[in-house]
Design goal:
Layout (H helix, E strand, L loop, with lengths): L11 H4 L11 H4 L4 H5 L7 H13 L3 H14 L4 H13 L3 H14 L4 H13 L3 H14 L4 H13 L3 H14 L4 H25 L4 H12 L4 H14 L6 H11 L3 H14 L4 H13 L3 H22 L17 H15 L4 H13 L3 H11 L14 H9 L10 H4 L6 H13 L3 H9 L3 H4 L2 H25 L4 H13 L3 H14 L6 H11 L3 H14 L4 H13 L3 H14 L4 H13 L3 H11 L7 H12 L3 H37 L1
Helix pairs in contact: 4-5, 5-6, 6-7, 7-8, 8-9, 8-10, 9-10, 10-11, 11-12, 12-27, 13-14, 14-15, 14-37, 15-16, 15-17, 16-17, 17-18, 18-20, 19-20, 20-21, 24-25, 24-27, 25-27, 28-29, 29-30, 30-31, 30-32, 31-32, 32-33, 32-34, 33-34, 34-35, 35-36, 36-37
């Protein structure tokens, strides 16, 4: 049995198929303009009466009468572009899509810039999976009606289908300019940035597999799940690959601190400071550790140092500002630690220093007391800048501030200092600083102007991945602020729970979203995917079938529904769905593996072997080579079978060896964690 990986990011485009569900009801603004009737009144022929009857019938949802009356108008006025469009809309409302598209084409032939016909043709091509044809019509509609967010939403759909993610993001951002609180656009913008982040992770794995930055990214991805020992393991891998990589010891210490491993966290922060004495984040975290350990004087000394270096950035590191949307925004110390720190507040209340007010603000934030956070900030005047921004705008001064991590003033003139001849390491330093203060668009712009070899370096790929992750977080945070109880927010919470393997919570959140918006594409698939992962076949199959009624071209639902029939040893029925999924995503090796498995069970070994050969690209444990060997064996091709068995055994041994070593290391981490 195969349970495919979570494909939420890949199938975000299907979630947009009903963003403009009400688009079919916007015909009032996209149908024939009212003045059209008068423009044709000089040719009295009785068509006006038919036209009026058609509109009245359509308003009362009597589509058969509306169709008859519009056809009567066209019998008298065959060159009437708007009536062709309106007849197409009548067909569209009845889900008679081919007939609707014919009428839209006729309307555009007569009047190429007709907005409604272009828009709905783009929508229909998009829903038929032909994004290449959809885009020109949607762009024409957007030019004619640049203030309609639904047009840009559908344009974004087509662009994602073609893998044009940057163009998709631009379209979503335009839609959000027109409708800032649209929960669909916010959710999908977050997914688009996630997709770009995943592409950078993949690129980094190809550029430098096993490198410190590649392992660091893996660790960071696990840090948002419940698998913190795996997070530690990958940070340790990063340290082993390159002990001096900036930030690795620091982030490992942060993970340990969140798990209450204070002494080990302190060791990592000290190591980061040994390597990078000016690391502001390490100073701030060391101050946290000292506070927890009861060293109030040492803690205040470190925090005073941090505030004198860059007060704004110190706030961002602790999540006391949302401006940067840094990783710390959602960090919280363990509950027992927070309770112990309550005693410190009494002592700090009597200290009227900048650092004391800063610590009180930090403690208030840990307890969710936003009013006290603001009050302590006011007492300490923490939002004051540390240096004069104008003095930074010299290359040598900027280098000095980058070295000392006085980042808050970098944004004001970094781009002014950069020149064509500026070396790559200087540009990467600036991009890193901009990322740290939350100026991700600026960081990405700096990275985009690197020379090609440096643009494709592991450091650049790492920074881009982090920037896209942070931009996704910003979109999701805005979604939460707009409507914390929307169906999109429940969907997002379901996605997050599923990523953390909290299947019960994921099911609950997806069901809450479905209750609010049962026809939203991708929701039933997401719920079914969790059921299928837990081998609840009946429940999974029901959800996949509902998804396919909403969107018959959903590759994930087709594939996993087919897999449920493979599990039940019904290969013929499985093939019905698996071949459709493979046709939609011909470059997906997992889909070819499943198709091959079905053909193999039907004893169609030549067809099975052809599919398995395509699927070899994703074989990391020898399982596909083994299936191919069995197919060759059944075909009587003994030499080919022996060769595939040999490769399968080698890959299987290597995979098991890696797994055993990883299991042993995870056991060691869990053991010292209990100490």
């Amino acid at each position: 049995m195969n349970i495919s990986s979570n494909r939420l990011g890949l199938f975000a485009l299907f979630a947009r198929c009903l963003i403009a569900a009400c688009a079919l009801m916007v015909v009032g603004s996209m149908r024939m303009p009212a003045q059209t009737a008068s423009s044709h009144a000089r040719h009295p022929s009785g068509w006006e009466e038919h036209f009026g009857s058609a509109q009245a019938a359509e308003k009362s949802q009597d589509y058969s009468t509306a169709e008859r009356e519009y056809k009567a108008v066209l019998a008298l006025k065959p060159d009437f572009a708007e009536v062709h469009m309106n007849l197409g809309l009548v067909y569209q409302l009845q889900d008679r899509i081919p007939e609707a598209m014919t009428e839209f084409h006729r309307a555009i032939t007569l009047k190429p810039a007709l907005t409604g016909a272009n828009f709905f043709l783009g929508v229909d091509y998009c829903r038929n999976g032909d994004a290449q044809k959809a885009i020109p019509y949607l762009k024409t509609a957007a030019l004619a009606e640049p203030n309609r967010p639904d047009i840009f939403s559908w344009l974004a759909t087509a662009q994602e289908m073609l893998g044009e993610i940057h163009a998709e993001i631009a379209s979503l951002q335009k839609a959000l300019e027109l409708q800032p609180d649209n929960v669909d656009s916010l959710y999908l913008l977050g997914h688009a940035f996630e997709q770009l982040g995943k592409l950078q992770v993949t690129a980094l794995q190809k550029i430098a597999p096993g490198s410190a930055r590649a392992e660091q990214l893996l660790a960071e991805s696990y840090s948002s799940t419940n698998e913190w020992p795996t997070t530690v393991l990958h940070f340790q891998n990063a340290v082993a690959a390159s002990p001096n990589t900036r930030g690795v010891h620091l982030e490992l210490g942060e993970v340990l601190l969140r798990q209450g491993k204070v002494k080990r966290a302190a060791d990592e922060f000290e190591e980061e400071l040994r390597l990078y004495p000016y690391s502001l984040r390490a100073v701030v975290r060391r101050a946290e550790v000292k506070l927890i350990q009861g060293d109030l004087a040492g803690s205040l000394q470190d925090w005073d140092r941090a505030l004198n270096t860059d007060a704004r950035q110190a706030e961002r590191i602790l999540g006391l500002q949302e401006a940067g949307l840094g990783d710390a925004v959602f960090d919280q110390l363990p509950e027992d630690v927070r309770k112990n720190l309550e005693k410190v507040s009494l002592d700090l209340e009597n200290r009227h220093t900048r650092a004391a007010h800063f610590v009180l603000a930090f403690l208030a934030a840990q307890n969710g007391d936003t009013e006290k956070v603001a009050a302590e900030f006011a007492q300490a005047n923490l939002t004051a800048t540390n240096t004069d921004g104008q003095s930074v705008c010299l290359p040598d001064k900027l280098r000095e501030m980058l070295e000392k991590e006085q980042y808050s003033n970098v944004k004001t003139c970094a781009t002014q200092v950069l020149e064509t001849a500026s070396p790559a390491d200087f540009r990467l330093q600036i991009a890193s600083a901009l990322f740290e203060i939350g100026a991700c668009e600026g960081a990405l712009d700096v990275l985009s102007k690197l020379e090609i070899p440096d643009r494709n370096s592991s450091e650049a790929a790492y920074l881009r991945a982090r920037c896209y992750e942070r931009l996704a977080t910003a979109a999701y945070l805005k979604l939460y602020q707009v409507d914390a109880n929307s169906y999109r927010m429940h969907q997002l919470l379901g996605d997050l729970a599923a990523a953390k393997n909290e299947d019960g919570n994921a099911i609950e959140e997806y069901r809450a979203a479905i209750a609010l918006k049962p026809s939203l594409p991708n929701l039933h698939y997401s719920l079914g995917h969790v059921f299928w992962k837990d081998v609840k076949v009946k429940e999974a199959r029901e959800e996949f079938e509902i998804e396919l009624r909403i969107n018959s071209r959903h590759p994930g639902a087709l594939n996993e529904l087919g897999d449920t029939y493979l599990l039940d040893h019904q290969p013929e029925k499985a093939l019905t769905y698996l071949t459709q999924a493979s046709a939609l995503e011909p470059h997906n090796p997992d889909f070819h593996r499943d198709v091959g498995t079905a053909w193999s069970e039907l004893h169609q070994y030549e067809k099975a072997a052809a599919e398995f050969r395509i699927a070899l690209a994703s074989d990391h444990d020898g399982s596909v080579h083994y299936k191919l060997a069995r197919a060759y064996q059944a075909m009587g091709e003994k030499e080919k079978a022996a060769r595939e068995f040999e490769v399968s055994i080698a890959l299987n041994r290597e995979s098991h060896s890696k797994l055993e070593k990883q299991t042993e290391r995870l056991g060691q981490i869990e053991k010292w964690a209990r100490e």
